[in-house]
Amino acid sequence: MFRRAASIVGWKPDNYRLVCMTYATMLRDLTDPSGICDMATASITILLRRIEAGIQFAYPDYHTGQGLMVYARGRRTNKWLFLRPFNWVVWLFLFLSALAVGVSTWVVEIVTKPKAARRVEDKDDDVGVVELVWSAGAQIVNAADPMRAFSLPSRIIIFVWAFLILLLVAMYTGNAAAILTASQVDVSIQSISDLQGRSWGAYNNTVDSMHRNGWNPTVLFAPQNPAETEDMLQQLATGAIEGLVWDCGFVDYTSATRCEFYKVGDCITEDNRALAFWQNATAPLVDAFSTAILALEENSELAHLHKNFIQPTSTICANEAAGTEQQVTFNQVSGLWIVLGATIAISMGLAFIGRHAKLKHLHKIVKKTISLRASGEDVDKETPMPDGKQVKVIDTRVAAHIL
């Protein structure tokens, strides 16, 4: 970030020299009138006491805070984990759809086959609405024989319903496997309030902020090298301290790369980081870098740098953290119900059209029969039709009953 800002200011690589030093030495140098550094590029936290000490700050380039980290000791169990693959709305619509499919299939069967309206319990061909609803629901878990239907519109509904179940079962199977094999940590510390009365640690320079918020860390750390940082983490792992409040960037990175450590919630405090300048630095220099950083923020380059160099990338820890974001929501699969609803509507239309055409044909036959009866002809014989076909003429009372 400093190199990008320096290039905007007009500095070339041979115009400056980078010197590595400990954090404490760097802060002392910025307030020392005879210090050797003009500025610090370590993204220093902007604090009132530092400004009062003479340190100058550019426009903030990093917004962060303090985060709580604990040691993850086991897995969290959940007796209702098998329901998590689908959002509750998906479950609700799934079983309501079984009811709708059973009822609509029954209605279509009645419309397309009037005889089926008179249910006779001892006939295998007659399937009631209860049986159809049960078959539609049991198909979800493959606990019943295929639904029985005789008309084409009914079979279209059943086909689309089977297709919907096929896709949802595949989604459930894959999602359930991912969730059930996920590592879900079991921690007793759910917030910083749970640390009260326990042993926990924090960064030495944040103790004032801790006290202002009513938090009292029992151990203060000020690691100056990787070995001291590792020793601090080992105290957390061994239980010497039960929680550690540290910079959110450090907490995010550690919990993303070392799965035994777990970040609790979001950052519990907020602060800004910026380039820090020697107390005798000129105002134009500070203003020039502030303008450069603001330009990087406006063109999203600052966010790009943060994502590439600070934000943890996806790791095995993140992949194992199964949560509600893995649920299949209704919005993601609503298209299946749109197709099913359209299919039911179209099938109903086809059934009524077919029924109307059939009744119209029967009406012609009955009218012909009545005409033959009126002329005194034998109505029990096969009568030739104008197109050369033979039709069995039935009694007018039977025809009226069909209508």
Automatic annotation (TrEMBL):
Major place of residence: membrane
Membrane association type: Multi-pass membrane protein
InterPro entries the UniProt entry points to: Iono_Glu_rcpt_met, Ionotropic_Glu_rcpt, Iontro_rcpt_C
Record-level GO cellular component terms: plasma membrane
Keywords: Cell membrane, Disulfide bond, Glycoprotein, Ion channel, Ion transport, Ligand-gated ion channel, Membrane, Receptor, Transmembrane, Transmembrane helix, Transport
Limits of the Ionotropic glutamate receptor C-terminal domain: 88-343
Location in the cell: Cell membrane
SUPFAM superfamilies: Periplasmic binding protein-like II
Domain of life: Eukaryota
UniProt xrefs under PANTHER family: IONOTROPIC GLUTAMATE RECEPTOR
Protein name per its UniProtKB record: Glutamate receptor
